[in-house]
Amino acid sequence: MSLIPLLETCQARTEKTLRHWLPTANVNPALLHAAMRYSSLDGGKRIRPLLAYLTGQMLGIAPSVLDGPACALELIHVYSLIHDDLPAMDNDALRRGKPTCHIRFDEATAILAGDALQSLAFYILAHDPDMVDDPALRLKMVETLALASGSRGMAGGQAMDLAAEGLEQSMNLAELENMHIHKTGALIRASVKLGALSQPGVEPTQLEKLDHFAKCMGLAFQIRDDILDVEGDTVTLGKPQGSDEARHKTTYPALLGMTEAKQRADELHQKAVDSLSYWGKAAQPLRDIARYIIHRQS
After folding, report:
1. Distance from C-alpha of 76 to C-alpha of 72, rounded to nearest angstrom
2. What domains does the chain contain, in order, with CATH numbers?
3. Closest CA to 73 of 24, 31, 133, 13
4. What is the pLDDT of residues 1-26, one digit of tens each?
5. 105 neighbors 150 (Cβ within 8 angstroms)
6. What is 223-283 written as a DSSP string?
7. pTM for this one?
C-alpha cells in the first residue's frame, strides 16, 4: 500500500477510535465535552498515531491492538495544542483551519478541555480491552507517555520556549535542539515506542534503533515546521503563517539560514532512515512517512 492510502486508513482508524472514547457533546458537562470533541475530531494529519500504526505494522501487530495507543497519543497532542494556543502561551487564534478552542469557547473551557483530554489518554491505556494483554507492557506505555508529556518532555520544552522569548540573545543550536527534543521530539519518540511496546518480546536492540529513528525525525519534523512558517501560507498550514518571526522566536532558518536548515533536515532524515536497515523491506512504510515529514506542505 502506498503512503497516501495508508495515511488515510490510519487517519480513519484514529478518527473512529477518538469518536468511541470521547464523551458525546450531550453528556454533562456538555460544554466541556463539546470543546473536547471540537478540538480532537475532523482535523489534523494524525502523524503521531500514524507513527504508532506503522511501527506496529512493521513488527506484525494487528491494527486493532494499536488503536488505543494511537488514540492516546493524539489526545495528548491535541491537549498540548489547546494549551499552547492560549493567550498566556502562544496566543494563537487559528488551529487546523478553524478558530482555536479558547476562541470558539472560552479560556477556562479550553484549559479544562486540555486537562480532560490528557487524563482520557491514560484512561485508554489502562482500559482498552484490545491492547496488548501484558500488564508490564501497558505500564511501560503509561510511563513512556507520562515522561513524554511532562516536565522532562513536552511541557518542559514549552517552558524552555516561553523562557527564551524573554531573552535578548537568541538560543544557540545546541539549546534550540535541546528545546525541540523535549517540546516536539518527545511525543514523536513516544509514538514509535508505544507502537513497538504493543509487540510482546520486542528486543531492547530494536527499541534502541527505533528510538534513534524517532529522535532524528522529531528534530526533522520541527525544522520542517520552522521552514513552513517562513515559506508556507496560512490557508495551507491551517494556522497563522509567520507567527514565529512575529514573536521573535529562535528557529532553525533564523539561526542557520534557510539553506543550511534544509540541509540539517536532510541529514537528520538520512540518519533516521539508516537506523531502519535492520528491518529491510518491512520498514518501507516508516521510510515513506519519514520522507513525507520533511517534504510536507502543512
Report:
1. 6
2. 3-295 (1.10.600.10)
3. 13
4. 578 898 999 999 999 999 999 999 99
5. no
6. HHHHHHHHHS-HHHHSS-TTHHHHTT---HHHHH-HHHHHHHHHHHHHHHHHTTGGGGGGG
7. 0.95
